[in-house]
Write a structure and sequence with these properties.
The chain has 259 residues and is α+β, with helices and mostly antiparallel strands. The chain has one domain. It is 30% helix and 29% strand. The protein is built from 6 helices and 14 strands. Strands 6, 7, 8, 9, 10, 11 and 12 form a 7-stranded antiparallel sheet that branches. Strands 3, 4, 5 and 14 form a 4-stranded mixed sheet that branches. A hairpin with an 8-residue loop joins strand 3 and strand 4. Helix 2 packs across helix 4 and helix 2 runs parallel beside helix 5. 40% of the residues are buried.
Length: 259
């Protein structure tokens, strides 16, 4: 796919194909890797499951609601994520952040529509603070994960104020595996200071792009991605937590100057 210019009420947004080097960097920085697209019409697969082992993230759980409200909240959450990106970038995290709007049917009349964050933390993101809250999820999600998650949640709160959009009520914050969250809306992936548009299939009429322009973006690299599952290699059962720790050790060895 070549360059795409999206026209919104707020202005235009140019999506420029991500370079092979950019994609290799994402693959190297994600604990389960990336399955590269084999055809222009196919998305890349950001691997969230290897064998029976799933990626884990944090969900901000809202109260259950009806289907119509849940669908409206899903688009609301996608817009807040787009508006939050410049606030998150201020923290200059080195790892990968995948902010998601999730949508789950729990029964015929009960739906859950919230926000979740999947991260691949860089050790440099580990907080120097001695506060226990800054390390709350590090044991399960890796050194620096808690700080990245709290900074993204704070960015969503800032975006809600700027845009005059209400924040969802949160009744719980939980570490959950990917498949426990139902359908994921993943319009963006953030790696270091680069925001990738990853929506697949690309919908130029989607309101998320207007919020991106209002957030100050006029150009973004684009690489379509979907959460993917791959078979696990025989006799290798590394959990998500194990994979994050292995990756963190490698990052410490290859970039000690950033620690």
């Amino acid at each position: 796919m070549g360059n795409v210019t999206i026209t919104t009420d707020a202005g235009t947004l140019d999506l420029i194909p991500a370079t092979p080097d950019e994609l290799r960097a994402v693959a190297a920085g994600w604990p389960m890797g990336l399955v590269y697209s084999q055809a222009e019409s196919e998305p890349n697969g950001l691997v969230f499951q290897v064998g029976k082992q799933e990626a884990y993230g944090i969900k901000l759980q809202p109260p259950d609601t009806d289907e119509r409200t849940a669908r409206a909240l899903h688009f609301h959450n996608l817009a807040l994520i787009a508006a939050a990106l410049p606030f998150y970038l201020r923290h200059r995290h080195q790892g990968i952040m995948v902010p998601c709007a999730y949508y789950k049917e729990k029964s015929r009349r009960q739906f859950e529509s919230g926000v979740a964050f999947f991260v691949s933390p860089h050790p440099a993101s580990k907080s120097p603070s001695q506060s226990k809250a800054d390390f709350l999820y590090d044991d399960e999600l890796g050194d620096g994960a808690s700080r990245m998650i709290f900074d993204m949640a704070g960015a969503v709160a800032e975006a809600s104020k700027r845009e005059g959009m209400a924040l969802n009520t949160v009744i719980g914050i939980e570490v959950r595996p990917r498949l426990a969250l139902g359908t994921l809306g993943t319009p963006f992936l953030v790696h270091r200071a680069t925001i990738f548009a990853i929506q697949h299939p690309l919908s130029q009429d989607h309101p998320v792009w207007g919020f991106s322009v209002r957030a100050g973006f006029s150009k973004l690299p684009y690489a379509s991605m979907v959460p993917a599952a791959v078979p696990g290699p025989p006799n290798v059962t590394h959990s998500w937590g194990d994979r994050v720790k292995i990756l963190s050790r490698r990052l410490r060895e290859t970039s000690p100057e950033e620690m």
